[in-house]
Amino acid sequence: MSDAVLVCEDLSRAYVDGDRTVQVLDRVAFRLMPGEQVAIVGASGSGKSTLLNLLGGLDDPSTGRVLMAGRDLAELGERERCRLRNERLGFVYQFHHLLPEFDARENVAMPLLIAGVARGEAWRRAEAMLERVGMGHRLSHRPGQLSGGERQRVAIARALVTAPDCVLMDEPTGNLDPKSAEQLLSLIDELGRESAAFVVVTHDPDIAARMHRTLELHEGQLREMPR
Ligand SMILES: Nc1ncnc2c1ncn2[C@@H]1O[C@H](COP(=O)(O)OP(=O)(O)OP(=O)(O)O)[C@@H](O)[C@H]1O
User: Fold this and answer.
1) 149 pLDDT exceeds 90?
2) Burial class (CB in 10 A: 0-12, 13-18, 19+), 207
3) pTM
4) What is the pLDDT of residue 128?
5) How far is the CA of 49 from the centre of ligand 1 (A)?
6) What percent of the chain has pLDDT over 90?
7) Measured from the CB, is residue 13 less than 6 Å from ligand 1?
8) ipTM of this predicted structure
9) Which residue's CA is the nearest one to ligand 1's atom 4?
10) Which positions ≥6 away from 148 have C-beta within 8 Å?
11) For range 130-139, the mean pLDDT
12) Translocase as a keyword (predicted)?
């Protein structure tokens, strides 16, 4: 099907460690449709972050391929790949990666400015998204002036502000208190109805249960978990 948001085919990733090769992913196949919400679970070290990085085009597979909006990431140059990521994808990392010298509003506006949105409009949309994640009162704070949970919410706003087709999240509720975690899950539901797809790596069974499907990584293989 050509309308999948993300497809991975026969995806493998091995790390060479001295004279040892560690096969982290072994011919993984996966298809993400618009609006679909998928949890990826698995033991620590099972390869969840590795898979997420491949899906987001941040790393290259040893073999196999990832198609984003029907385009093979490996066949794109770095510029083209960045453009596709900027337009189509939101990424929330385990360590938020906010820019320390910019305040919350500037951090969230950044992907819009990169996409060529005018500054006034970018700020307006950044403020609206920060309001939506409960951070409207911290627009001018820099990351160093925010708590861990607040930084995480700014990172989430930055990932969502471009209204991406697909949002990849690595342990998005790790730093959040229960109320903020619930707010994030409601936001995922809301954006899901606006047809964004989500891939959420999580150790939290409650979050996994809120997604449409759960896939487990085990010994390099991805398998559907029964509900
Ligand atoms: N750059 C690297 N070089 C060598 N080995 C690596 C590298 N990155 C990851 N690995 C190994 O690949 C395996 C999978 O790592 P990954 O971070 O994807 O796991 P994970 O499931 O996300 O773990 P966690 O739940 O602890 O975050 C681990 O055994 C790790 O040590």
Assistant:
1) no
2) buried
3) 0.91
4) 96
5) 7
6) 68
7) no
8) 0.96
9) 15
10) 175
11) 93
12) yes
> Which of 59, 53, 63 minimizes the C-alpha distance to 27?
63
Superfamily for domain range 6-224: P-loop containing nucleotide triphosphate hydrolases (3.40.50.300)
CA-closest candidate to residue 109, choices 90, 124, 100, 122: 122
| C-alpha of residue 97 to centroid of ligand 1, in Å | 19
Residue nearest to atom 13 of ligand 1 (CA): 45
Residue 2 pLDDT grade (very low, low, confident, very high; cuts 50, 70, 90): low
Mutation pick for ligand 1 pocket among 15, 58, 222 (CB with most ligand atoms within 8 Å): 15
- How high is the pLDDT of residue 7? 95
Instruction: Say how many Å lie between the CA of residue 220 and the centre of ligand 1.
Output: 11
Per domain, the residue ranges of the chain are 6-224
Report which protein residue has its CA nearest ligand 1's atom 28.
45
Could you give the CA distance from residue 40 to residue 147 in angstroms, rounded to a whole number? Answer: 27
